[in-house]
Specification:
Two copies of one chain form a homodimer. Chain A is built from six helices and eleven strands. Chain A is an alpha+beta fold. Chain A folds into two domains: 136 residues, PSTPO5379-like (3-Layer(aba) Sandwich); 111 residues, PSTPO5379-like domain (PSTPO5379-like fold).
């Protein structure tokens, strides 16, 4: 070890980084899932489309606000957002997905090469934001404890379509001890711009979900005895609808590799 | 009185009408301010613009959600809304305003003659919705008691612009007894899609309001000793921004002559 090497013990852990420090790591080419990074700061989903698709996406989100809470929309061609001072939306997400006609063509760490002057970016709320509040209230996050991604399911419920955008509601599921379902509902209801209250609790079949052990996205999660499956509207919904409608070009974040904003999770709590 | 005449005493009072009955009265040419009509049903602001202005309006609303809570957006040319079964948006508002290049050109009771196939209508939440909840909680509505329209003021705060839409935040003011400001805040905070919590309480000067006795819209309202002026973001904001941006053509409702929907005020309460 030389005098210039920072001792390992002093290196900030991911949860201790500021959002600006984290974005700088990703801008320089670092890449990591962001769960647990920059504690108490708001992470968001990214959807980037050509300007002539922007109205359809925005209207789809207005008509389906529980799965699609829009937290910011950029000017065409701009790679700045009001949610993160100095951020560059072309480089500061740790991993992107590039889509052509609904087909995944690349998973790069920046999108400078494919950026266009007509692109509009939507930043959409993410359930990480209310998970922290649930954890603070003593509600176990089974998937976190099990080191897995949250389980997500395509339901049989159609979203209200908008222009070329249409698709089924996607939900995330968290097993919650039966006597805490009320608390989980109350706390997430206080955060309507990050999916709000659950849309359903108890009966997967009522949502058209046949087997909880086989999620459509993410990982299966083991429930504990006495847990009830609780379903929240999921930010994957607009992404799935967009891919199904096959725009000629689109960029999204890679699942779990979110944009970390300067906003605080508490900014999205009503009380 | 003939056998066919319904006795006056049995005629439903406006607050007892169903929304469908009220809309039918207006469709047939009746016209009245709608304050107090169809108790517990949600009344909304109407803004109708050519489709090529729709993205700017929708984005302005997304960027300024407290003054501009969008409850529905129609398909181009459609005069139906998901909020009111069977309603005709060209006839069911009791009085309209027709605008050309930002100038008021007519105040008709229907807009069938000027309707166009490229028109998109925005229905925007209204403070009538939270006023009922405040009244239920024992908070006096001074302007209602005084038989006046609510007092509205243009503030010095700029909204976040979107495309051609820009303008200052408009607020409504209600004098609230000092020991009830907390209750008024808590209850309205639970209704984020109808303006939510107040944006300010106490100091008109901090909002650039010079004289509470001279509102920019509505009527001056007399405060009682011990009242504090409480300010909520107001649905006049998007209308004022639209008029200032002078679209070639637009339709709005006339102030106080709202569309009465089938939705219930309680639909917009989180808890």
């Amino acid at each position: 070890m030389t005098a210039h090497t920072r001792p390992e013990a002093l290196t900030p852990r991911p949860e201790e980084l500021t959002p600006q420090e984290a974005r700088e790591i990703f801008r320089k080419g670092g890449s990591s899932p962001t769960a647990g990074w920059c504690a108490s700061h708001t992470q968001v989903n990214l959807i980037t489309v050509p300007a002539d698709w922007a109205y359809d996406v925005l209207l789809f989100c207005q008509r389906n606000p529980k799965p699609c809470p829009v937290l910011d929309v950029t000017e065409p061609g701009s790679f700045s957002t009001a949610l993160a001072a100095g951020a560059d939306l072309r480089t500061d997400v740790p991993r992107y997905r590039v889509w052509e006609h609904g087909r995944l063509v690349d998973e790069p760490c920046d999108v400078i090469d494919v950026w266009r002057k007509d692109l509009v970016t939507f930043l959409i709320g993410c359930s990480f934001t209310f998970e922290a509040a649930l954890t603070d209230a003593g509600i176990p996050m089974r998937h976190v404890d099990q080191g897995r991604n949250v389980a997500m399911y395509r339901t049989s419920r159609q979203c209200r379509p908008a222009g070329r955008m249409r698709g089924r509601l996607v939900v995330s599921m968290r097993p919650v001890p039966a006597d805490l379902v009320g608390v989980a509902t109350r706390i997430s209801a206080m955060m309507p711009s990050v999916h709000g209250s659950p849309i359903h609790a108890g009966d997967p079949g009522a949502l058209g979900i046949e087997d909880l052990a086989r999620p459509d996205f993410g990982d299966p999660v083991d429930a504990q005895p006495g847990d009830v499956p609780v379903f929240w509207a999921c930010g994957v919904t607009p992404q799935a609808a967009l891919m199904a409608s096959r725009p000629p070009f689109a960029i999204t974040h890679a699942p779990g590799y979110m944009l970390i904003t300067d906003a605080r999770d508490t900014d999205y709590r009503l009380v």
